[in-house]
Every structure is written in structure tokens, then in C-alpha cells.
Design a protein that fits this description.
Oligomer: single chain
Shape: globular
Mean pLDDT: 95
Organism: Ulvibacter antarcticus
GO molecular function, one term: transferase activity
Keywords: Transferase
CATH architecture of the largest domain: 3-Layer(aba) Sandwich
Number of strands: 15
Number of domains: 3
Radius of gyration: 23 Å
Number of helices: 17
Low-confidence stretches: none
Distance between the termini: 20 Å
Protein name: UDP-N-acetylglucosamine:LPS N-acetylglucosamine transferase
InterPro entries: TagF_C (IPR043148)
Strand order of the largest sheet: 3-2-1-4-5-6-7
Helix content: 25-40%
Largest sheet: 7 strands, parallel
Length: 464
């Protein structure tokens, strides 16, 4: 047991809960002698989990958010020019302009883009920090840090604008800061909102991305740790028997199950058509002697009714297994996971043969259980195309796939039933390819990510 040291973990929104609250992360830190306080901006009460918390108090400056929007657009323009690749245009979305206030904000963002584009971007990065320094929010952060005196401030997410003040306050007080890059696709999408002294990444691949896209980050600032999000898949104590799983979820006991994992409506507006195509293929296979069912796990932030007709039409085949998340507000980032969802997802994977989706990271969750994934790879013919699915697979993070045989590709509706049959019979080449991809994306062994993060935090504090 080392002498107790204090860390503040900034939790600006609910996305960090799966990594840093629902895993063994806090337990490992406590065993290493750390006094852990969650600097909490979520609706959750961390004390219910036996954890210490301090509430973040205050609001981000309105101008800061506009600066942040401009920064992202400028960075994507730089990436497009640097790599001569128009895929970066696809990471931008047309902002809402259905009110005078929104139109004014959009006008200001365009002005900031013109003023700070190109080599002037560094000025905008400083403007963002200075904008927050003028807020009561920043002053509250400074006061909290002076009171508690942590050795390090660690943000669980690099994306939210409300993480800027806690980090800048710590830096202004000379406290080391670090952030965790939350998702495998974040860096090429220009989601870097906070700038810290150290960065924790999933893999060597992500480290090279960070160095390439953000040249102001130096190699000695980066720690490769992997992500804790896959750790629960290796906790055998959370898995239940097939009988218990089927009984708990009121599922027929005589069927073999596959999983359809839904995407959000922006990424995959045609998900209902894809789900129906899989259901039709399953119906065909069942008529030929199979007895298959589909477990439908919708995207946690999708509360639309767009699947209702398909779910009703194929209720003899499709069984709803919604993620155990809770809506705490109006925005997508106020939809937060419950602790029960960790085991719920792991058991859904454990008791289904494979997963079908549109380009989701569920491919990595399934390979943790040595099970394959199929990617939908065609545009539906029966509806006007809102998003060309072939554009999705051109996104930069898919270029990390070491071989096309890391997944099964559903290239048209006619081949789905045949490929489902093949996946049920075994796909060793797909499993091998998926494992290679997983090892490239996330440092192995994946179940030791939390331990590696704490070891890196120890190194940072010891040297500072």
C-alpha cells in the first residue's frame, strides 16, 4: 500500500460511466492507495455506488460553445487539405436554423471560422480557454481544487465543452491533467475539445493518429492503455446460464438467437429496412427447418418509433431486448447507462450466435466472446436514400481494418439468408480477422486496461 494520493476524475457526461464507474477501475485505484473523487456533472449520485463525489457547479460560457464549433470546422478543413481527402466533409452536420437565435449563432460561428482558420487556429484554442476563465463555473472549479488539492485531474472524456473549465483551472493551479480518448473513431472526427498535459489512448494505432492530427501533442505526453469498456466481457461472474437468460427476458427456449444491434438515426436512418431484411431472411431459414429468433438491441440514444411497424410485423421472430439506459434530459448525452446494462449486454452477446449492424464497434464486443459480426453493406431499394451506406465504410476509422474478412458483409438482400447459415456453421477466418482488428484497435490483454491506466497515472504523479 502506497501513501494515499488524491485524484479528481472529471465526469462531464454519462459516457464515462461504463469505463470508470461500472468496471473495476475504482476498486483497483483504491487498492493502489488512491483517494478517488468523481467530479460529477451527470444526474447520477455516485455515493449510491459507494464512491466519493463533488458536484461540478456552473455553466459554460455561450461563446465558448460557438468557439468550439468553429474549431471543429477549421480542424476538419485542415485535415481535408492535409490529406487531400474529402471524407472529412462528411463529419460535419448542417446546424439547425429554425429560429433567429440559432441563425445568429451560426453566423457567429462562420465569422470565427473565417477569422481563425488555417494558421490562426492556435489563437482560437487560446480564446476557448480565456472565454471559460471569465465564468463563475471556472472560478468554482478553482475554489474546489484549492480546497481538495488533488495530485492530478483526469477527464474521462475529451469531447464535452463542460470539461474545459475543470481542466484549465487545474492547469492554472499547476496541477497535472490528463484525458482519456473515449472512442475508436474520435480523433479523425475533430472531437478534441480539451487540451491536457497527458493523453490516454487505446492503442499504438490511436497514438499515431493523435500525433498526426494534433502535432502540438508530443509523444511523451501519450500513454497507451487500452479502454476499460471491454473488461466486463471477461468477468465470468456476470454471465448467467442460457435458461436463466431466456427466462429473465421472457424468450422462447427452443430458438437459436442472433442479435441485431441498432444504430442512431443520423448514422443509419435505414435501420428499420435492414432489420426487416434480416427478419425476412430468418423467416426463410425457419421455413427450411431452422428455428431462429432475432434479439433486437436498439441504439441507447434512439427513442424513435421508426422500428414499430417492423417489430409488430415480425413479432414471431424479433424480440426486443432494449439496453438498460435511462433518459435524464432532452439531449443525447443525457441518456446514460445503468450499471445493470453491463451484464445485460454481456449476456446478450453470450447467448446469441453473432451480431448484425451497420458499422458498429459491437464487432469488438462480440469478438471478446469469440463470436463474429456482420456489417450491412447495401442501400435499400424501397425508400429514398438519406445516407449512402458506402460512405459510412469510407470513414477513417474503418481504414484500420487489417483485412476485409474481419466481418461478414451483407452486400444485398438476396445473400443474407445464405450468409446467416454460413455464420451459424462457423467462420474461423472471420474470427481470426476480427481478432487481428481488435488487437490493432485496443491494447491486449483487454481486461487489464484499468490496471494500465492506474500504472500510467502513478508514473505521471511520481515524475511531477
Amino acid at each position: 500500500m502506497i501513501e494515499s494520493k488524491k485524484i479528481f476524475l472529471v465526469v462531464p457526461d454519462g459516457v464515462g460511466l461504463r469505463n470508470f464507474v461500472y468496471t473495476s477501475f475504482a476498486k483497483i485505484g483504491a487498492e493502489k492507495g488512491w483517494d478517488i473523487t468523481y467530479w460529477n456533472n451527470t444526474p447520477f449520485d455516485f455515493t449510491e455506488f459507494g464512491l466519493q463525489e463533488v458536484r461540478l457547479s456552473g455553466k459554460v460560457a455561450a461563446q465558448t460553445d460557438l468557439y468550439k464549433r468553429a474549431r471543429k470546422e477549421i480542424e476538419l478543413q485542415i485535415f481535408e487539405q492535409q490529406f487531400q481527402d474529402d471524407i472529412y466533409k462528411k463529419y460535419t452536420f448542417k446546424p439547425a436554423s429554425d429560429s433567429f437565435k440559432k441563425k445568429l449563432k451560426n453566423y457567429l460561428v462562420r465569422r470565427y471560422i473565417q477569422k481563425y482558420k488555417g494558421e490562426n487556429l492556435y489563437k482560437l484554442r487560446e480564446k476557448i480557454k480565456d472565454s471559460e476563465r471569465k465564468t463563475a463555473y471556472y472560478k468554482n472549479c478553482v475554489a474546489t481544487l484549492k480546497q481538495h488539492k488533488p495530485e492530478i485531474v483526469f477527464s474521462t472524456n475529451q469531447r464535452p465543452v463542460n470539461a474545459i473549465s475543470p481542466i484549465v483551472a487545474a492547469q492554472d493551479l499547476g496541477i497535472p491533467t490528463a484525458t482519456f480518448i473515449f472512442s475508436w473513431d474520435n480523433i479523425p472526427k475533430a472531437t478534441m475539445v480539451i487540451e491536457t498535459d497527458y493523453y490516454f489512448v487505446w492503442s499504438e494505432h490511436m497514438k499515431q493518429e493523435l500525433l498526426t492530427y494534433y502535432p502540438y501533442v508530443k509523444e511523451e505526453q501519450i500513454y497507451i492503455t487500452g479502454t476499460p469498456q471491454f473488461e466486463p466481457h471477461f468477468n465470468k461472474n456476470s454471465l448467467v446460464s442460457r435458461t436463466e437468460f431466456l427466462t429473465e427476458n421472457k424468450l422462447p427456449k427452443d430458438k437459436e438467437y442472433i442479435c441485431y444491434s441498432g444504430d442512431d438515426i443520423t448514422t443509419s436512418p435505414h435501420d428499420p429496412q435492414y432489420l426487416e431484411a434480416v427478419a425476412l431472411a430468418v423467416r426463410k431459414l425457419n421455413a427450411e427447418g431452422r428455428n431462429l429468433g432475432i434479439l433486437f438491441r436498439r441504439c441507447p440514444v434512439d427513442f424513435s418509433d421508426r422500428f414499430d411497424l417492423v417489430l409488430e410485423t415480425y413479432k414471431d421472430i424479433i424480440y426486443k431486448l432494449p439496453p438498460k439506459w435511462e433518459k435524464k434530459g432532452g439531449a443525447w448525452n443525457t441518456v446514460v447507462p445503468l450499471k445493470e446494462d453491463i451484464a445485460h449486454q454481456a449476456n446478450t452477446i453470450n447467448h446469441s450466435a453473432f451480431v448484425v449492424n451497420v458499422g458498429s464497434s459491437m464487432v469488438f464486443d462480440y469478438i471478446c466472446h469469440n463470436k463474429p459480426c456482420a456489417f450491412i453493406n447495401y442501400n435499400p431499394e424501397e425508400v429514398p436514400i438519406q445516407v449512402d451506406i458506402h460512405t459510412i465504410y469510407k470513414y477513417v476509422h474503418f481504414r484500420s481494418m487489417p483485412t476485409p474478412e474481419a466481418v461478414v458483409w451483407f452486400n444485398n438482400t438476396d445473400e443474407i439468408s445464405e450468409k446467416i447459415e454460413k455464420m451459424l456453421s462457423g467462420t474461423p477466418e472471420i474470427l481470426k480477422g476480427a481478432q487481428q482488428w481488435f488487437e490493432k484497435i485496443n491494447l491486449h490483454p483487454p481486461q487489464e486496461a484499468s490496471q494500465r491506466i492506474w500504472n500510467s497515472i502513478d508514473q505521471i504523479v511520481d515524475k511531477t
